Amino acid sequence: MTRTPSIPGVHAGSAPRVRAAAGLLVYLLAGLYFGVVLVKSEAASWYRIQEMFRFQSFHMFGLIGSAVLTGLVTTQLLRRSGLNSRDGQTITVTPKEKGWRRYVLGGLTFGTGWGLAGVCPGPIFVLLGSGVWPTLIVLAFALLGTYLYGVLKDRLPH
User: Fold this and answer.
1) Which residue, 43, 45, 42, is CA-closest to 132?
2) 18 close to 10: Cβ distance less than 8 angstroms
3) Can you tell me the distance from the alpha carbon of 2 to that of 6, in angstroms, rounded to the nearest whole number?
4) Which of 142, 89, 90, 149 has the alpha carbon at shortest distance from 119?
5) pTM
6) Domain ranges of the chain
7) For the chain, what percentages of helix, strand and coil (3-state, to nearest 5) are there?
8) Which of 38, 45, 74, 135 is the most exposed place for a label (fewest CB within 10 A)?
9) Per-residue pLDDT tens for 103-115?
């Protein structure tokens, strides 16, 4: 009979919890890295975002373009690889629905909020972590908008 080695302080039935905690640690570290990249690339800078909307600088367009290119390549690799998730399920990328209205209305809504707040949802927590406390107002309205979408989603074009 083989016996699995025990970890001091960890009970035999808690191995899935330890694995889940280790997985969460990986996500935390990836999120911290992403936050540092956002700050160092100035993607979380209100001034850089305003320069972009005023067509005064290529900086943000270059960052967004590289993100789109990275997303395209990653999506194609995921579609072709047949990789499994941590739970053992095959990762699939579902195709987008046809039509233009939902994308135009969603883009206009997102862009209006981005232009008014000077920040998209990605860097909200990065800015809070950097001590930019007025971003709490942006977070509150982002949460309100998400809630309102949940309430109104059956009446919106999809």
Assistant:
1) 45
2) yes
3) 12
4) 142
5) 0.60
6) 96-158
7) 65, 0, 35
8) 74
9) 888 889 888 888 8
